[in-house]
Amino acid sequence: MSYGFYGWETADIRDSRGLTPCDYYDLFSRAWCAETCAPALRKDWSPKNNTLGQCSITAFLMQDLWGGKVWGVPLPGGGVHCFNEVSGCVFDLTSEQFGDNPPDFNDRTEQDRSVHFADGDKFARYQLLKSRLLPLIPAE
Predict the structure, then answer these.
(1) Cα separation of 139 and 124, whole Å?
(2) Given a cut of 80, is residue 36 above it in pLDDT?
(3) pTM as predicted
């Protein structure tokens, strides 16, 4: 099967359930919704562009599940786009939102969840996404 997110080709690591980042992409695709999208982007969110505005909450939730680091790259016009690195495997489950113009994943800095979650709305969206995702994950 083919995926469109950054790093999918080498995202062959497995968690304790035997799931890969591609498996989690499939699960997140069922959990992302307009309410979990960043408010500034919500008017442009759609099921066809379901990764829009989901980056930091998705990356930190993946960190909860897998460990590793959350990285951020600067976006034109401000803001930071977040993605994951686990055991040397770099992947960005939400990169499809950029279409043919992905960010430069080399210009990255490690992200601190306390800084991101200081925004109460972002933390509430993270909690909502978590509540939608966890029931979809198969038991060990």
Answers:
(1) 25
(2) yes
(3) 0.95
